Amino acid sequence: MKNWIAALTWFAFISSFAPPSARAVNISSTGRGQVALFPFYSVRSAESILNLINTRSEIVAVKIRLLEGDPRDVTAPRSFEFIAYLGPFKKATWSLANPEFTTSPCTITSGERANFDFGSVEIFQMASLPENFNLSDCKALKSAWQVGGDFAANRILLKSPPGGLFAHLDVKDLNGSSFSIHPTMLDGFTSRPQHASAGDPHPNLSDVNPKESVVFKTESQLNQSSFVHSHWNNGNAKPTDPIAAVLSQNWLMALFDGRAIDSRSFTLALNFPLRRFENQPYCYRTAFSTFSPSGESGAQNLDASACRNATLISLPSQDVFLNLPGQLLNPKLAQGWLKVVFNRDVPRLISDELDIFTGIPVLAEGFSSQNNYKERMGLSTKITFGRDRP
Fold first, then answer.
1. Is 275 helix (H, G, I), strand (E, B) or coil?
2. Structural element, H or E, at residue 3
3. Domain coverage including residue 328
4. Mean pLDDT of the 147-172 span
5. CA 238/CA 226 separation, integer angstroms
């Protein structure tokens, strides 16, 4: 199986090695960073609890943005935002159904919670605050952060975000099944402090600064590995290209277990975080297939389309966990690998150094739920990403 995977890919992005430059955006090797990207959350017949931990000695301001998973206009999904402040080495939790239910000493929301019940989550560490600021005085903090306040008028009081943010999401449905989702963490997103109100569309993934990226690649056939440090300042580069460089994939594989004897079901959540920045968004042409660890083929759908910002696939063909809408694929195999290939109209990026990147920027999370006689439990699954030779 390992040789088969190696033959398919030219290089894969690995998060177990620290990039050589903290000034360029990269997928964090430690699980901590400046930006956390969750592929999905749900409050439909479920409860989602967001957990944030500040592992640094600075006071930090954080923006949390919930994005609609299936908007009418993929370039303008509805959103709900709130700003939170975390003290040194502090943890806070929020219910995503109602962020007012929180352990945070101070949370600023963008207004009434929008009426959508599943989607994705973006978290941006915006800045560090003066170390002598009193976090227990929420009124003074809100006044200082709002437009015309001390932090807005005098940005010199804010310092660059230090990183070190850790996050995870606990999801529990009404039947008691639960699982945890760990995000894709980006570090080196920005070297500047950022200030924005709760209703401001910034910061977002186009605000990466400087416009640089670092990825770790391995050429499996030659058994060679190296870092690729790219700049994106040429006239053809888009503001989100550094993010696309680190998140783009040509294919992914998820290990699933849908054995009926255990009453298990498997769901793969796919999220396309840069779709809303496209001038003319299109459906991503995809191919789905299943196969056993020994290579036995199962079901195939070689001409599917992923048109939503968030897409869910359920195995076997039964009710999707958490009652989310999804594209159902009925496999012949009870367990094995689900492979998703982005096989047509794949974007091609070229950096200032003429590094070539292909693939679709995608986030993925797979989980299975098991119903036995005594308990229901959620199990995360292994996902392998890959990118073909340009």
1. helix
2. helix 2-8
3. 212-386
4. 85
5. 25
The token pair that represents 210 in the structure block: 């400087």
- Binning the chain into helix, strand and coil, the percentages to the nearest 5 are 10, 45, 45
- Give per-residue pLDDT as tens, 255-270: 876 554 444 567 788 8
Pairing mode of beta strands 356-358, 348-350: antiparallel
Which residue, chain included where needed, has tokens 């660059």?
160
* Tokens 């001409």 belong to residue: 303
Q: What does the pLDDT read at residue 53?
A: 96
Extract the tokens encoding 52: 């944030």
Could you give the 3-state DSSP secondary structure of residue 117?
A: coil
Q: How far apart (Å, rounded) are the C-alpha atoms in residues 387 and 34? A: 25
Cβ contacts of residue 266 below 8 Å, gap of 6+? 254, 256, 257, 258, 314, 315, 316, 338, 366, 367, 368, 381
Q: Is the domain of 192 the same as that of 262?
A: no
- Long-range pairs of 145-153 with CB within 8 A, sequence gap ≥ 24: 145/61, 145/83, 145/108, 145/195, 145/197, 146/197, 147/197, 151/195, 152/195
Looking at the structure, do residues 357 and 248 belong to the same domain, yes or no? yes
Same structural domain, 219 and 356 = yes
- pTM for the whole structure: 0.87
Determine the distance from the C-alpha atom of residue 8 to the mean position of all C-alpha atoms in its chain, rounded to a whole number: 25
- Is residue 135 over pLDDT 50? yes
Least Cα distance to 145 among 76, 63, 254 occurs for 63
- By mean pLDDT, which of 118-122, 265-269, 326-330 is the weakest? 326-330
- Domain co-membership, 67 together with 155: yes
- Backbone dihedral angles phi then psi of residue 265, each to the nearest 5 degrees: -135, 155
- Note the pLDDT of residue 110: 76
pLDDT tens digits along 187-233: 999 999 999 988 899 999 999 999 999 998 766 565 667 789 999 99
